[in-house]
Amino acid sequence: MGRASVSFRLIAAFVTLTATIAFAVPKAGANDAFADARASMVDKIEDIAGAVGPVDGRDRIDGEVLAAMRRVPRHLFVPDELTGLAYADRPLPIGYSQTISQPYIVALMTDLLDLESGDVVLELGTGSGYQAAVLGELVSRAFTIEIVPGLAEQAAARLAQLGYENIAVREGDGYYGWPEHAPFDAIIVTAAASHVPPPLVQQLKPGGRMIIPVGTRFSVQHLLLVEKEADGPVRTRQLLPVRFVPLTGGH
Ligand code: SAH
Question: Which atom of ligand 1 is nearest to the CA of 77?
Fold first, then answer.
């Protein structure tokens, strides 16, 4: 890979995350005034995926993931003063020092989970609820945990208003997972952890996949893919450098 593409890859992967504000709303998938903006956002995601090159051997984002992102009204997951930037390929602030992730990163992480329609998925770091909504479009049930009470409440209200009955939001420290609903076919962590939380590995189904950024605020973070083999062993692969807000909590 050439030097230019390496640095592009680094830049493209730089993320900061999170969101806010519920306004009255068309349901996800509605042909609202932002449909064209969403389609352009998805075109941009495909361009970036092409420029970044293969990640874990795949050089494009799955069509169903892209279709889901063409449906979810991202403008309803950002503060209303940022509505005009909602479909730009960049993270945006959502209050409480958190961010909604860059759309390309949402697409990439969702794609890497290899989701099936019957899957049950856990997300750590609900933030705005946008990533959860994308998951909700693709799987049978999504559980999502947020440590900041204000964000958890807003995201739960927003997702309910949008009609996502298959998504459950809980306030709490996601480090310990959600044992009542385990095991999960897939787990996605949207804040950077210093290590892979053992409770999450435990709550992953054999054959399941977890995608998690690992590193600190001051060091390079890497997106890791953790796969639990059907017979038990866990394989971890480091995929690409990213930047996320830190996972907080008491562990
Ligand atoms: N997925 C979100 C963006 C998440 S930003 C979206 O689509 O908008 C990361 C989020 O992780 C922040 O909201 C932060 O408060 C939350 N977070 C940080 N540490 C956490 C923890 N231990 N448990 C649950 N959530 C956590």
Answer: 8
Atom of ligand 1 nearest to the CA of 247: 19
Digit-coded pLDDT (tens) for 141-157? 999 999 999 999 999 99
CA dihedral 134, 135, 137, 143 (to 10 degrees): -120
DSSP 30-72: ---TTHHHHHHHHHHHHHHHHHH--BTTB-S--HHHHHHHHHS
pLDDT in tens, 47-61: 999 999 999 999 899
Helix 103-112 and helix 130-138: axis angle, to 10°? 40
Residue 6 has pLDDT above 60, yes or no: no
Domain that holds residue 78: 3-242
Residues 6+ apart with CB under 8 A from 2: none
- Nearest alpha-carbon partner for 96 in 191, 219, 25: 191
Instruction: Determine, yes or no, domain membership for 247.
Output: no
126 Cα: distance to centroid of ligand 1 (angstroms):
5
Q: Tell me the three state secondary structure of residue 200.
A: helix
What pTM did the predictor assign? Answer: 0.89
Give the number of domains in the chain. Answer: 1
Measured from CB, residues less than 6 Å from any atom of ligand 1 are: 17-19, 98-101, 124-125, 127-128, 130-131, 145-148, 151, 173-175, 190-191, 245, 247-249
Closest by CA position to 170, among listed 137, 202, 209, 144 = 144
Which of the listed residues 82, 98, 173 should we mutate to test ligand 1's pocket, taking the one with most ligand atoms within 8 A of CB? Answer: 98
Decide if 101 is catalytic.
Answer: yes
- List 7, 40, 97, 101, catalytic entry: 101
**CATH no. for residue 164?**
3.40.50.150
